[in-house]
Amino acid sequence: MRSTFVPVGQELARYVDRIWTWEGVPEELPSLLPGTGAELVFHRGSQLTAHGTDGPILLPRAHLLCMRRERWRLTADGVVAFTAVRLRAGALAFLTGNPVEDLIDRVVEIDDLMGRVGRQLSAVLDDTGDLAARAARAEAVLRRYPIHRTDLRIMAGVQRLYRHPAATRLSDLAPALGISTRHLRRGFSAAVGVSPKEFQRLARFQRVIRTMLLNAPSTAMPVALAAGYYDQSHFIKEFHRFAGESPGRILDSVPPHFYLPSVVSRQTAGTVPSRRL
Fold first, then answer.
1. Which of 69, 110, 183, 240 has the most CB atoms within 10 Å of its CB?
2. Residue 259 — very low, low, confident or very high, per pLDDT cuts 50/70/90?
3. DSSP code string of the chain
């Protein structure tokens, strides 16, 4: 397995975490687990099949992945190679006028999501050249893409739950943002596809996997408690809910790159979105 990535420039960093590649054999493919973000994936190698609750799905050459509740096992008939644009938590809402709840846990072709710009991205990223050069061309395409109007109060709530899932009390979130509880729930469904409570659970789950993979502690419980789980029973029950397997089995098998921390950009922290992506 070989994986590389490049960070994006300051203008896009508030939306895009990184542009990255993955190459390997089918046996190295991970299961796709529920999470908080989204990926635009452009395949160059063998076509992949996703196996979920609705049976096998042949993935298009260019598509969106936005997993929230489903778990997909991936298979392929030959060498796998793809380039992906990893979107930050909440950023998918800036790409589409459709509610994100209509896009989660299903295959959405890039053409249907982004139209002509999606086809341009496919042409740029469906290549074998230097990643940095391809990423620079992809950034130029994305900078011309107009963003969709989004409630920045909801986005502030998304970022708070993503960064501090253990320290954030849901009962305090709506008042802190200056909105009603009903508006918060509706806004989260539109912006990230799930309720604030479920998003918090996803952020907590991701945090444990990421910390365990990067730091390899001897036991998961201190990590789980720091992420906001009440006790061992709570942690194992929630882990099975999202992963379908025990923590030990998942943490022994998932390629680390899929769960690396976000690329932090100090220059863009706390800024207001521009007129274009």
1. 110
2. low
3. -EEEEEPPPTTTTTTEEEEEEEEE-GGGPPEE---SSEEEEEE-SSPEEEEETTEEEEPPSEEEE--SS--EEEEESS-EEEEEEEEPTTGGGGT-SS-GGGTTTS-EEHHHHHTHHHHHHHHHHSS-S-HHHHHHHHHHHHHTSBPPP--HHHHHHHHHHHH-TTT--HHHHHHHHTS-HHHHHHHHHHHHSS-HHHHHHHHHHHHHHHHHHHH--S-SHHHHHHHT--SHHHHHHHHHHHHSS-HHHHHHHS-GGGGPPPPP-GGGTTPPP-SB-
Residues in the chain: 277
Alpha carbon distances (Å) from 120 to 127, 134, 256:
12, 12, 30
Least confident of 96-100, 121-125, 126-130: 126-130
> Which of 110, 66, 57 shows the shortest CA–CA distance to 87?
66
- 235 has pLDDT over 50: yes
Question: Rounded to an integer, what distance in angstroms lies between the CA atom of residue 124 and that of residue 171?
Answer: 45
Predicted local confidence at residue 269, as pLDDT: 37
Least confident of 52-61, 89-98, 121-130: 121-130
- The pair of structure tokens assigned to 150 is 């989004």
- pTM equals 0.89
